[in-house]
From TrEMBL:
Gene3D superfamilies: 2.60.120.200. Residues 52-244 form the GH16 domain. SUPFAM superfamilies: Concanavalin A-like lectins/glucanases. This is GH16 domain-containing protein. CDD domains: Glyco_hydrolase_16.
Length: 244
């Protein structure tokens, strides 16, 4: 668990980069601060694109993750490749900060989102075994699906990716919450099912979740489209991430 009370990010738990194997640590470092007992991830307007020469659509991202590794440069061994045949550009040493399996996990957070941005917290397999790559998405919010001050579509569920034993079961129900205010997003994870809740109210249940160690991913994204209506710089402000 992390209450983000310190003056510095706890690097025993977190790597302040987003999937650096496909780019580099220099180009994937998160923009973040710790203040008022919160982790504040942001995407300033001058932040460079992630994998600018290869990733579609163009995006900027600030993220932290609780696990990381890759194969050698030129290999295809790495976490969450975004296309077939993607090659490692910078080898990553193994890092296992916080890889839970089962239990109750919850995050208290708020989001500042415009029409081209998104924030999310998800769990994904460490992929030490290639098929252990499925995802449990606890909260995913696109700014384009937010009615400011009134409601938002909150994505939650399972993604199978390349795990032949996993299920695809994802939805984004609209909830009467203002995501700019703090809310508690949680998942109760057992071998049989995952139960997703917001502020203590159950929203979705999915049977047959993955059952292997998974790493936390916390990130805020901007998908620049060249318009003048991008809104404020997006932020994900996390008060705590807890496990029971």
């Amino acid at each position: 668990m992390d209450e983000f009370d310190g003056a510095e990010l706890n690097t025993d738990l977190w790597l302040p980069h987003y999937l650096p194997a496909w780019s580099s640590r220099a180009e994937t470092r998160a923009s973040y601060t710790l203040a008022d007992s919160c982790l504040r991830l942001s995407v300033p307007a001058d932040q460079g694109l992630w994998c600018a020469d290869d990733h579609t659509p163009p995006m900027r991202v600030s993220g932290v993750q609780s696990g990381n590794w890759s194969g050698p440069v030129g290999s295809t061994r790495g976490q969450q490749p975004y296309r077939d045949g993607l090659a490692v550009r910078e080898e990553q040493p193994p890092f296992q900060g916080w890889l839970p399996i089962g239990g109750r996990l919850e995050m208290r957070a708020r989001m500042v989102l415009g029409p081209t941005s998104m924030a999310a917290w998800w769990l994904v397999g460490f992929e030490d075994v290639p098929s252990r790559c499925a995802e449990i998405c606890v909260a995913e919010v696109f700014g384009s699906a937010v009615v400011p001050g009134e409601s938002a579509e909150v994505g939650m569920g399972l993604h199978a990716f390349r795990d032949p034993a996993a299920r695809e079961d994802f939805a984004a129900p609209r909830l009467p919450i203002d995501v700019a205010e703090f809310h508690t997003y949680a998942v109760d994870w057992t071998h049989e099912r995952v139960v997703f809740s917001v502020d203590g109210a159950v929203v979705r249940e999915c049977a047959g979740p993955p059952w292997y160690p998974m790493q936390h991913m916390l990130a805020v994204f901007d998908f620049p489209d060249g318009s003048d209506d991008a809104g404020p710089p997006p932020e994900l402000v996390v008060d705590y991430l807890r496990a029971e």
